[in-house]
Design goal:
The structure holds three protein chains of three kinds. Chain A is built from 15 helices and no strands. In chain A, helix 5 packs parallel to helix 8, helix 5 crosses helix 9 and helix 5 crosses helix 11. Chain A is 75% helix and 0% strand. Chain A has a single domain, classed as MetI-like fold. By secondary structure, chain B is of the alpha+beta class. Chain B folds into two domains: 164 residues, D-Maltodextrin-Binding Protein, domain 2 (3-Layer(aba) Sandwich), CATH 3.40.190; 203 residues, Periplasmic binding protein-like II (D-Maltodextrin-Binding Protein, domain 2, 3-Layer(aba) Sandwich), CATH 3.40.190.10. In chain B, 43% of the residues lie in helices and 12% in strands. Chain C is mainly alpha-helical. Chain C has two domains: 60 residues, no CATH class; 240 residues, MetI-like (MetI-like fold, Orthogonal Bundle), CATH 1.10.3720. The N terminus of chain C is likely disordered. Classes of the chains: A mainly alpha, B alpha+beta, C mainly alpha. Chains in contact: A-B, A-C, B-C. Chains A and B meet through helix 3, helix 4, helix 5, helix 7 and helix 11 of A and helix 1, helix 3, helix 11 and helix 12 of B. Chain C: One of its GO terms (biological process) is transmembrane transport.
Chain lengths: 316, 435, 323
């Protein structure tokens, strides 16, 4: 166990050092390698243009979220329809519309989404990593068949399984409960696949052997050594599952009928799907506010998921 | 050993967590616990329930207060009508469906065929007088009642009177030829007095054609399908001329560009369903406020002044309901809460009380009592029976209608496609079609 | 993908008398399944059972019984053998949708993967120093739910509203993003917008994991930036790129959100525009024959096609790898 910690610490140190070297060298590249000013300008121009492409729709959505339906269809799409001084009023009005459409449940739904996404990502990550570790490190009977079946299911359009899932969950009296969202959302063949790849590439067999010789039980090895090594990788799986659950609306559409249990995407979908709904500014505001927690999470966990991506990418 | 213990502990923790979560909302679906003599009724709807409206839950609360022995719980379904039917279909099979559910008139026969409705004719009879006869008959299948009508969608003509006057069109043209001439005249100055809406073709154009006679008739036990009636041909001819002359807008109804065409003042007249009135108010952003009017359809499609249905819903009693009598009692009360339903943007089917034009519409429509116009239209609807599986026909009609906008198809194709799709759908359902 | 598995050799010195190997194997078997179990149980519940249900139901159709014009007010499941499958494989709408999706995959996936690669390379090059802002900016769209992204883009495509269309028109370029031959590219753009940043991050991570001394060595050999990119960087992200490609292929075959939302503005997008839309609309009865039976058959045929594609891709990948 102490070996593992040391090892991962050493790895982290090495990574940090590599980063530092990279930063340093960026400044003192040999003359032949120093990009010419022209190359630099062109590259930066390209990168900025691409950045505009990615951010412009979001910028537009922010502007749109302050507009009334008629302001959306007329006038300048690039700027607020009202003066800056009147902006708070415009925002307050759309916010009121949003709360009206969601019958005052908007933040409750956001909280529900957080619970659904958080819990299913947590459970999902753990079981995926366990299964991935099992298939990567143990030659149990039926292993190849299991891998084959799970990978095959990646090809199955998950949305179409929603209806049979509903029937099964109904038989278990689980429909219209939080579990009816959490259970389906915490199973991801892709998560399993990532867990397997990570376990294959970053858990050294020697380490496991050594721990076994020390007399550690398999459970102890997994929960104290393997999970620690896989931690950055698990963040990646967690975020993947989190986003996937957050964005799912077909499943809650079938499973959930109580207003108090709806996730925020379902509420937004409800607004869009009503033919008579035209208040798209308020919808944009809802979409942006609904996405906010995801973005905060991404920013907050940035350091970890980038490390996790690196871990997975090396030998994907 | 220690491994197994740990695993068990872990599983137990997960399970405990799950139970806790399950506890959060498991009791929401039980529909009919009547141990203490109280009947519980559940009602699923798709009403807008938006800001400024009288919320469905508030209306229901009034009922619950006055009827301690029949307690109603309303839930709003946050999805499309087709999503809701699919969900109810599964719910009915598993016996967990609500007692009452909103069902569009066009979908009612389909929902019946799918085995989701309960025959409530014996209870419906006594409430018959509370509703207009046209909508009431749309809640029936084969002479039996399955619910009560809630709102209607008679097609009427919305137009901007001041813009018409500017163009020298003194009144809404009453014949097809006059209308097309006027439309061309308007188009010449960048104005349009009609919109062709490909995404609403299935609902609206079927209603327009239906003004002069239905498509689906039952003869013996077989369906007689004729979607290419004289009325259909007149509708096709009318719109085709407008499209050829580029004298109608072709924006899809639910695309933002349709709203834009009202706001920028280019669309100054169109056929629309009565329930679209509040949408014109919001979409316009004030353009033409006070100048808009509602008129009955002219004799543009051989319809002799009659109109047809577009949308409108019934509330039906689902098969799994154990308390149809109480459900109907509530339903009759709910569907006759005229002012509350009007606040939800509906044109109520109830005749127990005159619907008043809401004041916020009054300004936009120049003080006209548009509810009266809608009521007149309601009383002037042609007979149009929907067949089971009509939603497939609607989908096909919309798709074909889109082809007419860019000239890759003709408006009349809508009706020939409707014919083949109707026959296919009926046959696929195992119903017989007369040659 | 074929991993060499380590067979745990148990140091079972104290278990004399029993054949070592089978004991170890048994133990490994048990431990493996124990770790597999939680995922396995959930997986069975969420995937296996529903798939079995789907396969079973694909042999049935829902029809009325009891005669009369409306039937007896009940749909029953009628066993129809392979009729649903026959319907699917002979349906021009299904193949048109499949063709559309394949075309979409053919265009969108390479464009997205190559753009992501190029962006990752540029960010990893020493040309630009402060990359954090770019990295996050590119990645942000991934956090936007697909439906919302589609709604935003539909606005940006709309001739009467979009500042983009208006700006293009102002400089004399008239575009109709919903025109018949362009609409599929418009759709592909939405997918690309959403997922390029995500893929780029994966590639960037792979690039940054390349040991720095490799560059040093190359530089000493006199390699320039492009040569380093081609000979060192590219081979190192190949595995990640190939995997991303496979996942993207599987994802785009299930194309649904984008066309579904765009259909609001373009009614020409039919209910069977993609196989996934066709399946869902069939199950809801807006296409005929409707119901779960034909819908399941569509899903199964579609999954088979996706499976064949993935297998072909994996085969090609292996062939290329061997060379």
């Amino acid at each position: 166990m102490s070996t593992a910690t040391k090892e991962s610490r050493a790895a982290a140190r090495a990574r940090r050092k590599a980063d530092r070297i990279r930063d340093l060298h960026a400044n003192d590249l040999p003359r032949s390698m120093q990009p010419s000013a022209a190359v630099r300008i062109v590259t930066i121009a390209v990168l900025v243009l691409v950045l505009i492409y990615f951010l412009f729709p979001i910028y537009w959505a922010i502007i749109a979220s302050t507009k009334t339906p008629s302001q959306m269809t007329g006038g300048n799409g690039l700027w607020f329809a009202v003066g800056i001084a009147e902006l708070p009023d415009a925002i307050a009005k759309n916010y009121a519309t949003l709360l009206g459409w969601t019958r005052g449940q908007f933040w409750r739904w956001v909280a529900n989404s957080l619970v659904y996404s958080g819990v299913s990502a947590l459970i999902g990550t753990l079981v995926a990593v366990m299964a991935g570790y099992a298939t990567a490190k143990f030659a149990f009977r039926g292993r190849n068949a299991a891998i084959g079946v799970i990978m095959g299911c990646m090809l199955m359009p998950a949305a179409l399984l929603t209806i049979p899932q509903y029937s099964i969950f109904h038989a278990m009296h689980l429909t219209n409960t939080m579990l009816s969202i959490i259970i389906p959302c915490c199973v991801s063949p892709f998560g399993f696949f990532l867990g397997r790849v990570y376990a294959q590439t970053s858990v050294p067999n020697e380490l496991l052997e050594a721990a076994r010789i020390d007399g550690a039980s398999e459970a102890r090895i997994f929960f104290t050594i393997v999970l620690r090594i896989l931690a950055p990788a698990m963040v990646t799986i967690f975020l993947f599952l989190f986003v996937a659950t957050w964005n799912n609306f077909l499943l809650p559409l079938m499973m959930i009928s109580s207003d108090t249990l709806k996730p925020v995407t379902l509420g937004l979908y409800g607004m869009v799907s009503l033919a008579t709904f035209t208040d798209r500014g308020a919808l944009m505001m809802g979409a942006l506010l609904g996405v906010l927690p995801v973005i905060v999470l991404f920013l907050g966990l940035q350091r970890y998921w980038q490390a996790g991506l690196a871990a997975g990418a090396v030998k994907g | 050993m220690s491994f197994n213990k740990r695993l068990v502990a872990c599983a137990a923790a997960v399970a405990a967590l799950s139970m806790g979560l399950a506890g959060c909302g498991s009791s929401a679906n039980d529909s009919s616990g009547s141990s203490d003599g109280v009947v519980n009724i559940t009602y699923m709807h798709r009403l807008p329930d938006s800001e400024g409206m009288t919320l469905v839950n508030d209306i229901v609360a009034k009922w619950n207060k006055e009827h301690p022995d029949i307690q109603v719980k309303a839930t709003k379904f946050d999805g499309k009508a087709s999503d809701m039917i699919k969900k109810l279909e599964t719910d009915v099979k598993s016996g967990e469906a609500p007692d009452l559910a909103q069902v569009g008139y066009a979908e009612l026969p389909e929902v019946f065929t799918k085995g989701m409705l309960q025959d409530v004719t014996q209870y419906a009879e006594q409430y018959k007088d509370h509703f207009a006869s046209g909508p009431y008959s749309l809640t029936q299948v084969d002479g039996k009642s399955y619910g009560l009508p809630q709102d209607t969608g008679p097609l009427v003509y919305f137009y901007n009177k001041a813009e018409f006057a500017k163009l020298g069109i003194d009144s809404v043209p009453q014949s097809a030829d006059e209308f097309i001439d006027a439309a061309k005249k308007a188009a010449a100055s960048g104005k349009y007095i009609m919109s062709y809406q490909p995404d609403e073709a299935g609902n609206m154009i079927s209603g327009l054609a239906g003004a002069s006679g239905g498509w689906y008739k039952v003869k013996g036990d077989a369906w007689v399908v004729d979607t290419e009636t004289d009325g259909s041909k007149a509708v096709a001819d009318f719109y085709q001329q407008l499209l050829d002359a580029k004298a109608a807008t072709t924006n899809p109804r639910w695309d933002p560009s349709f709203d834009a065409s009202i706001k920028d003042g280019s669309l100054i007249g169109t056929v629309a369903a009565a329930w679209e009135a509040p949408l014109f108010v919001t979409s316009s952003g004030g353009t033409g406020s006070g100048d808009w009017q509602v008129a009955q359809l002219g004799d543009w499609f051989g319809n002799a002044g009659k109109t047809g249905p577009d949308g409108g819903s019934a509330v039906a009693v689902l098969k799994s309901s154990k308390h149809p009598k109480e459900a109907m009692e509530f339903l009759d009360w709910f569907n006759t809460q005229v002012p509350d339903l009007v606040s939800q943007g509906l044109v109520p089917a109830a005749t127990t009380e005159d619907a008043e034009t809401p004041s916020e519409w009054g300004e936009f429509f120049g003080g006209q009592d548009i509810m009266k116009e809608f009521k007149d239209a309601n009383n002037n609807m042609g007979d149009f029976t929907y067949m089971p599986g009509f939603s497939a026909v609607v989908a096909k009609m919309n798709e074909t209608a889109a082809k007419a906008t860019d000239g890759s198809g003709k408006v009349e194709d809508i009706f020939s496609d409707a014919q083949t799709t109707s026959v296919d759908t009926l046959k696929n359902l195992g119903l017989s079609v007369a040659k | 993908m074929t991993a060499t598995t380590h067979t745990a050799k148990t140091p079972s010195a104290g278990r004399a008398g029993r054949p070592k190997r089978s004991d170890a194997a048994k133990r490994e078997n048990r431990t493996g399944w124990a770790f597999m179990a939680p995922f396995g149980i959930l997986f069975a519940l969420v995937f296996i059972l529903p798939i079995i249900w789907a396969i079973y139901s694909s042999f049935f159709r829902q029809v009325t019984v009891g005669g009369g014009a409306y039937g007896g007010g009940e749909l029953v499941n009628k066993f129809v053998g392979l009729q649903n499958f026959r319907y699917v494989v002979t349906s021009p709408a299904f193949w048109a949708g499949t063709g559309r999706v394949l075309l979409y995959t053919l265009i969108q996936v390479p464009v997205m993967i190559i753009s992501a690669l190029v962006l990752a390379m540029l960010l990893d090059s020493f040309i630009v120093r402060h990359v954090t802002g770019f990295r996050l900016g590119y990645f942000l769209p991934y956090a936007i739910p697909g439906v919302v992204a589609s709604i935003i883009w539909v606005f940006l495509y709309n001739g009467q509203i979009s500042p983009i269309v208006k700006a293009l028109a102002a400089i004399g370029i008239q575009v109709d993003f919903f025109a018949d031959n362009i609409v599929i590219a418009s759709m592909a753009n939405i997918t690309t917008w959403t997922f390029t940043g995500y893929n780029m991050l994966i590639f960037l991570a792979a690039l940054q994991a390349i040991p720095h001394d490799l560059y040093e060595a190359a530089r000493i050999d006199g390699a320039n930036g492009l040569q380093i990119a081609w000979h060192i960087k590219l081979p190192n992200v190949r595995a990640a790129a190939l995997l991303a490609m496979l996942l993207s292929i599987v994802g785009t075959i299930q194309l649904f959100n984008e066309p579904q939302v765009m259909a609001i503005s373009d009614p020409g997008i039919s209910k069977s525009y993609t196989p996934m839309m066709m399946a869902l609309n069939t199950s809801q009865g807006t296409l005929t024959p409707g119901g779960d039976g034909p819908a399941s058959a569509i899903a199964i045929v579609m999954a088979l096609i996706a499976g064949v594609l993935a297998a072909v891709y994996a085969l090609v990948e292996r062939k290329v790898n061997e060379q």
